[in-house]
């Protein structure tokens, strides 16, 4: 029993020891037990020949057997040796784990067991051999082992008590932080869902219940797909995959519209943030959603208002140009008139030269086309149409504007030079709005040069932008812009002109930003330069 207990204790308490050694030690001990009954008087004596007397401490006298030792005892000794080897081996393994508790345990428990087994076994052998006169009592020896075990175990009891106390406090703080988490989740304005690794909703807050129209019990335990419109599902998977690949918490639904599916089947535009959460045994994703219905409506209203203002400003600008535009139309009309009169004169003659009349008619048609073109461009700018973003050649924008403003620029004695890079890749944008921007920049440039002496000169340049896309710039030889105002001039109602409103540049800026581009001003030696970049269309190479 003692041998079994020691082996069991060492095995479970040290979490070490070779099994075969343990089995071998047990097998030899069992064999010794059998031999104890099968051979001699017992395993110690082949024969007991007499009784000796031994005096113990304190003068107590006890009878001890005297006889021939049993040779089969060797099996018990082998068993003891195996037990010692097993315990030494297990203690070494424990010692190698390195921490102080393991080392103390290996030394104290392992050491005392080995010592006691060795002492008890040798002592017993000496008594049987008749070298020592003493009773063969094992108890005192193993008492030391029990004491060592008890000492060690009492440490464990204390540690367990401390651990329990710690566990209780951490349980309390866990409950407190759980309550805090719940309170935060319940009180934030966002709709919150906690989704587990299987895609099932495990937690919702009242805002989520309001957003989706389900009661808590209707959502918890159900797959999250319940809350996503069918047509979104494949996109949702892509989101998840890209999210898993790159675990930034992206805000979704900003660049691309994202919808939540309400219980009644309606779709609610939302913005979504995902945050992975890891517990010991499971992973979750915290989904935070904001209903952006109102924001989207406001954005749409703002966009409509922006378009209306930009249209108004376009009309106002064309009002300023009306004199020179009238002239643009008048010229071909005059041509038509004089050509028609000439034709009438030719036809009044007797010898009508039909070839000449034909030539005149060709001229009339040409002039008519010219006038028609001017009117077409004017109508396009005056019309309050939908913004149409499509791939376009930025040089054609410059051409259109030049045709419209040519006369005005000539009247103002402004020399215009252009530097248009041929074969630029198409940008994506609204032709009319981009014309409006360029027209505005050109007219501002003319106005800036009115106050300064020297030849007024405007230079328009198109080229590939440094960071990709296409750049269009307008530079002049006016007074430039005070460095502190370089950014401010794009704010609404900032003007230095007596009759200015200060809306032109702000509208241009809004238009370019809405095109995904950039518009900024720089001072160049003797004037200002306005540069605008536009992103390339997807169709561009
Ligand atoms: P407005 O023309 O009604 O003043 P804008 O928004 O077009 O409104 O221009 C705002 C201000 O920016 C102008 O008042 C002027 O001071 C400055 N500005 C615009 N273009 C130029 C330029 N090419 N050179 C110098 N200053 C300019």
Key descriptive features of the protein:
541 residues, alpha+beta, Beta-Lactamase, Helix Hairpins, 4 domains, 6-stranded antiparallel β-sheet, 5-stranded mixed β-sheet, 18% strand, rod-shaped, binds adenosine-5'-diphosphate
Going by helix content, strand content and strand pairing, the class is alpha+beta
SSE topology string: HHEEHHHEEHHHEEEEHHEHEEHEEHEE
Bound molecules: adenosine-5'-diphosphate
The helix tally amounts to 13
Kindly give the count of domains: 4
Biggest sheet features:
6 strands, antiparallel
The tally of strands reads: 15
Runs in which pLDDT lies below 50 for 5 or more consecutive residues are: 244-249
The percent range for strand residues is 15-25%
**Distance linking N and C termini:** 88 Å
Describe this structure in words.
The protein is α+β, with helices and mostly antiparallel strands and 541 residues long. It is built from 13 helices and 15 strands. It has 4 domains: 2-161, no CATH class; 189-291, Beta-Lactamase, CATH 3.30.450.20; 296-386, Orthogonal Bundle (Helix Hairpins), CATH 1.10.287; 389-541, 2-Layer Sandwich (Heat Shock Protein 90). 54% of the residues lie in helices and 18% in strands. The strands form 4 sheets. Strands 3, 4, 5, 6, 7 and 8 form a 6-stranded antiparallel sheet that branches. The protein has a 5-stranded mixed sheet with strand order 10-12-13-15-14. A two-stranded antiparallel ribbon has the order 1-2. β14 (518-524) and β15 (527-534) form a beta hairpin. α12 packs antiparallel against α13. It is rod-shaped and about 175 Å long. The model is unreliable at 244-249 (pLDDT under 50). The chain binds adenosine-5'-diphosphate (ADP). The site of adenosine-5'-diphosphate has 20 residues, from α12 and α13.
């Amino acid at each position: 029993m003692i041998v079994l207990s020691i082996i069991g204790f060492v095995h479970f308490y040290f979490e070490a020891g070779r099994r075969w050694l343990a089995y071998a030690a047990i097998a030899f001990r069992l064999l010794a037990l059998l031999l104890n009954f099968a051979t001699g008087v017992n395993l110690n004596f082949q024969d007991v020949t007499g009784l000796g007397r031994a005096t113990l401490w304190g003068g107590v006298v006890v009878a001890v057997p005297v006889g021939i030792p049993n040779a089969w005892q060797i099996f018990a000794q082998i068993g003891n040796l195996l037990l010692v080897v097993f315990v030494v081996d297990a203690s070494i393994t424990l010692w190698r784990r390195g921490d102080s508790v393991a080392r103390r345990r290996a030394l104290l428990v392992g050491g005392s067991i080995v010592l006691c087994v060795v002492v008890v076994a040798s002592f017993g052998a000496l008594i049987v051999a008749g070298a020592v006169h003493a009773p063969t009592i094992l108890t005192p020896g193993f008492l030391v082992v029990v004491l060592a075990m008890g000492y060690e175990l009492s440490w464990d009891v204390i540690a367990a008590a401390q651990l329990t106390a710690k566990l209780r406090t951490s349980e309390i703080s866990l409950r407190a932080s759980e309550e805090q988490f719940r309170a935060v989740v319940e009180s934030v304005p966002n709709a919150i869902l906690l989704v587990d690794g299987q895609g099932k909703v495990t937690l919702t807050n009242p805002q989520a219940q309001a957003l989706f129209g389900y009661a808590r019990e209707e959502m918890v335990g159900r797959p999250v797909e319940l809350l996503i419109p069918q047509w979104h599902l494949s996109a949702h998977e892509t989101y998840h995959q890209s999210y898993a690949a790159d675990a930034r918490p992206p805000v979704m639904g900003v660049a691309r519209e994202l919808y939540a599916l309400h219980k009644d089947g309606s779709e609610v535009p939302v913005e979504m943030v995902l945050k992975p959460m890891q517990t010991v045994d499971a992973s979750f994703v915290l989904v935070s959603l904001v209903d952006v219905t109102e924001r989207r409506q406001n954005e749409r209203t703002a966009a409509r208002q922006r378009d209306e203002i930009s249209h108004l400003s376009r009309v106002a600008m064309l009002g300023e140009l009306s004199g020179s535009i009238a002239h643009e139309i008048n010229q071909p009309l005059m041509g038509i008139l004089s050509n028609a009169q000439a034709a009438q004169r030719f036809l009044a003659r007797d010898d009508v030269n039909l070839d000449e009349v034909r030539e005149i008619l060709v001229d009339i048609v040409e002039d008519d086309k010219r006038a028609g073109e001017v009117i077409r461009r004017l109508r396009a700018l005056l019309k309050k149409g939908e913004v149409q973003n499509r791939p376009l050649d930025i040089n054609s924008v410059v051409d259109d504007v030049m045709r419209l403003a040519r006369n005005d620029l000539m009247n103002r004695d402004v020399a215009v030079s252009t530097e248009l890079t041929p074969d630029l890749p198409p940008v994506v944008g609204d032709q009319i709005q981009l014309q409006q921007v360029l027209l505005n920049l050109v007219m501002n440039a003319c106005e800036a040069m009115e106050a300064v002496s020297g030849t007024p000169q405007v230079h328009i340049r198109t080229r590939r932008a440094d960071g990709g896309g296409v750049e269009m710039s307008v530079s002049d030889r006016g007074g430039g812009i005070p460095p502190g105002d370089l950014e401010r001039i794009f704010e609404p109602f900032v003007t230095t002109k007596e009759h200015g409103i200060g809306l032109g540049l702000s509208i241009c800026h809004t238009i370019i930003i809405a095109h995904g581009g950039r518009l900024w001003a720089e001072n160049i030696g003797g004037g200002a330069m306005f540069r605008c970049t536009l992103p390339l269309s997807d169709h561009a190479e």
